[in-house]
Amino acid sequence: MNDFKGESIRKQLLQWYEEEKRDLPWRHSRDPYHIWISEVMLQQTRVDTVIPYYNRFTEAFPTMHDLAQAEEGELLKLWEGLGYYSRARNLQQGVREVLENYQATVPRTREEISSIRGIGPYTAGAILSIAYGVPEHAVDGNVMRVLSRLYAIDEDIAQPKTKKTFEHLVMAIIDHDDPSSFNQGLMELGAVICTPQKPKCLLCPVREQCSAFDQGLTNSLPIKTKKTKVKKVAYNGYMLQRADGKWLVEQRGEGLLAKMWQYPLIDSEQTNWTDEYGITWMEITNIGDVTHIFSHLKWEVNVFIGKVEIDTGKAYQGEWVTSEELDKLPLPVPIQKMRTLQSASN
Fold this sequence. Notes:
Elements: H1 3-20, H2 32-42, H3 47-60, H4 64-68, H5 72-79, H6 86-101, H7 110-113, H8 121-132, H9 141-150, H10 162-173, H11 179-192, H12 211-215, E1 231-241, E2 247-251, E3 261-262, E4 265-267, E5 279-293, E6 297-310, E7 319-321, H13 323-328, H14 333-345
Parallel strand pairs: 1-6
Antiparallel strand pairs: 1-4, 2-3, 2-7, 5-6
Helix pairs in contact: 1-11, 2-3, 2-6, 2-8, 8-11, 9-11
């Protein structure tokens, strides 16, 4: 390791970050709880998308006690549209663990903070360095991309074992006086300058220290093997309304989008399904289709809307709710897309 190179990177990175960092709401706080919220929300979500969610969430749950006591439906409604809803549940459970086991104080050591539900190595390092000023690594995809290029590292960043290489590297070059700005500077550099495609090398504050730039390897690093192919799942989605104006919805079970609410989504090849909901007559119209890609699945939903009659004498699957009640339920993005399609077709 070239100590002079690490020293130059620290100096230039910290100066650039201080002068050029974006004005983001969580950067106005050193509250470990607020930093925790922001880092969980930022996982697999764009910064511009997160900002309004973060503001609404911290307004609704300004303290850990507020979040710990929240109803799951309220929590999921505030998270609606961010996806990966297990993140929200783990955040609430983690906060409850802090209140119960750590006297309402987020731990200051990696060992302790890593024992909390939903806090992995990256989130632990981010909270410790940003909130507490502890020199700990916080390595995500942005950081691995930046360091791959700075040091011309040709290890496959898609492999879990490779992350250890970058964690050790960060600990070797991190600024011990200001680990918060150092870690955030690496993240910021990867977000706005050292981007996956067409990096802005001429604007980079550490270009002179970048081995990939010097060797003409910028476009070939980092090395990352492609993910497995996304599986397609086809549904017919039914927005069904009975005579009193109420809509048919149901709550999902465990697994993907657990406890979220949806219109009936029926396998496109299934035909005999109406009896499950007590439907005795149905007149529907096809209004188009929506798609939504999860990390491992692609939903293709053919959307129908219409009027139905039901057998009211028995209890059937699903619930009937008013439009006002539907607005208050936590709905996953594919269902929101169905509602948008409905509005556009009116």
